[in-house]
Write a structure and sequence with these properties.
alpha+beta
Amino acid sequence: MRGCSAVVVFASLLLCAMWGYVAFYPQSTRTAQVRSRITVTVHTPAGDRRGSGVWGYSESAVSVFNAGYHWEFRPRLEGDAIPIDLDNGRTIFVLLGSSSAPGMRNSRPIPASFSSTFSPLDALRQGDRWPTGWTREDADGRIARARSRRGRAFAMDCSPGPARYGECPAMVVADGPSARNLQLLDPDNFAATLGQGYWLGDVAIEVVDDPVDHAITRRLPWVRPATAKDFAASTSSDDIHIRMTGFSRKDPATLAF
């Protein structure tokens, strides 16, 4: 009898949990998508070089446990890395990620770092107060505000501070077509990596109706476009597999700071 009672209790708890999961499951698990064209200008000794691409941003429901399960809407990105061909034969890739600048904290050096997160909302907000919560209503509010910026180009703040990520996407320079070795660029000091005469120009974002770009595979046949699953994975900055950055590969590449 005691065993049967335990089974009944367990079954009741399981049914309650399932009821709660279904009862609080959002009717729609993903918001509409807002698409933005990112345009980056790089000054070179031979003149300006530009690259642009369209990235998509939406928010999707994620089950979070915090004193019980509940649903929160989190960012979801779609797009490919944006290549910029330089006059010296090297290529800069603008990634779906962010970078911080090196610096000092408590008399200790802080190295530059890469984060696999990027949000176009940081630049589109322009200092306005937008919804900050994680409910569906908050998420829809952020998408509506972002879409209301359509038709205007905004400059992005590309000057990150120590341990602070700027508004701009991270940029790396590849050693060649294989992009096996990448160097993270300091937006305030391109010359440190590329040499004299190279510096970052304007970086602009504009909300558009154009489709999201998925052309990286035509340029680099060995890669596949990043997917939402890639963005959910964790990435080591020492042995980055080029996930969550706009293109993915099976073999690792080295990301140097």
